[in-house]
Write the C-alpha cells for this entry.
Amino acid sequence: MNNFKRLFKKLFCPPTVPAFNPVYRALAVTLLFFAAGAASGILFFLDDIRSPGIPCSVIIDGKVYSTEKLRTINYESILNRRIEKKFTVSAGKRKMTTTWKSFGAYADYDFFKSAVKGISNPEYVCSPDLPPAEIPLPLRLDPARARENLVALKVSWDQPETDARLNIYDGSIVPHRKGIFIDLIESLALLHSALRKGSDLIELAAGKIKPLVTADKLEKTDMSATLGHFDTHYARTSEARDRTHNVLLGAEMLSGQIIMPNSTWSFNGALGERTAARGFHYAPVIAGGELVEGMGGGTCQVASTLYAAVFFAAMEIVERQPHSRPSSYIKLGLDATVAYPNIDLKIKNPHPFPVVIKYTAGGGILKAEILGKNSHHKVIFIRKIERRIPFNEKVIEKKDLPAGLRVITQLGISGFVVQRFRIINRNSVSFRERSQDKYPPTTQIVVAGTNPDLALDSPGFQGKIPQKDSHLPYHAHSRLRMIQGQDVWDEAMHE
C-alpha cells in the first residue's frame, strides 16, 4: 500500500518527476483509461436504473392495446362496460342473471385515468422485448348493496331439509330432500373476486343439510298398529269455508310425517309458515282471548287433534301451550295452540321404533292417528276442574244505534284452572304425570245503542247492526276420564 502511494505521488506530483519519462507516461495513460471506463460504466448503470424501458403494449380487460392506442381510448367506457356487464349467479339448481351495477359495483375513474396516462406517456421509449403489461381495472363492490342483494337471494333460495315420508294410502315412500343455505360472508368474498377477474358465472357458497329421516330408513317401517288416535269436528258451512280449507290443507301437509326413535318433532318446523303463497287463507284465530282474523286460522285444530292423539300414544310432550280460551272442538285440557314461529307443539318419540302421523278428514270429522308397532300400552287421561273464574262484561255504547238494542259481539267464557293427569300403563308398570292448565276468562263484549230517536225499522238502518257472536255458550264437565289402548276406548264425564 505504501509503495502504491509513492508511485501515485511520482505520477501526479511532478516536482521531482522528469517531464518526458516514457515509462511514467505510459503508466499514467493506462490508469486514466481504466478510470474513464469505470466512470462510463457507472453512469450507464445509473441511467439504466432511471429508465429501464416500458412495454410497447398493455392488456386491459382481456384486450391488447398499444401504448399509442392508449392515448386515444375512452377509459370511462371501458369501466362502464364492465360495470354494466351481465353475469349469472347460482346456488344449487337456482340461477339468476343480473348486472354488476345492480349488485353495487363501482369504479375508481381517476385512478384508472392516471394509470393509463402514465404508461402511455410519449416521453417514455417502449421496449419491444418486454411482454405486455396488464393494467387491472379498479373495480369495487359496495358491501352494503351487495349484502342486500345476497340477503334477498338467501331468503328466496334457502330451503329447509325435508324428511322422507310415507304415503299412508299406498305405503310408498316419498323421498327426502336435502336443505340448502347460502353462506353470506363467503359468497360476498366470491363476488369481490369474480368482479376483479371478470367472471360470467359465480357459484355462491352454499351448504347442504341432510334431513334426519331419509328414504333408506323407512324401507321396513312397521305401521300396522294404531298407538293413539283422536277425532275433532270442523264446520262445513259457507261462513267457515276458509277456516275449513286451512284445517284440511294443514292435515294434508303433515300426514305421512315420520318421527324417528328418540327424536323431537316440531309442528311449526314440519308445517312451516302459514302464508297465502303456500295456499293458506285468512280465518278467525284466537289472539289474547279474542277471535280475530289471521292467516292460517284453523291450524290450531290440526295441532290440537294431533296433540290428543300423541297424548294417548304415550309420546313425550316436549313443548305445548293451551289456548287462551277453551275451544269448542276439543276437550278442555287436550288442546294445543300454535303460532308460527314462536308458539310450537314439540313431540319426542320415546318408542324404540319409528312412528307415522296420519290424518284423515271427511264428513266434518278430522282424525289424527299415530301408527307404528304395537307397544301394548294403555293411557288414562283424568281431568279435574279445580276452579271456575267468572267472566266480565264490557259494554260499548253507540250513539248511531237505537236505545235498547244490545248485541253480544263476543260471547263471554268462564276461566278455568284444570288439573290434568296422564297414567301410562305398559307391561304391568304404570307411570303418572301431573300438570296444570290455566284458561283466563274471556270478556263478554256487548254493543248497546243509546240513541232514543232511532228505531230498528228506520229505512236503511239494518246494515248498521253489528254481527252477533254465533258461538254457543261453553260448558265443561267438572271431571273427565278417558282411557285409550289397543282395542280399548272409554270415556266418562261427571258434573
User: Anything to note?
Assistant: The chain is about 25% helix and 35% strand. Residues 16-20, 28-34, 38-51 have pLDDT under 50 and may be disordered. The first strand starts at residue 54 and ends at 55. Residues 2-50 form one domain.
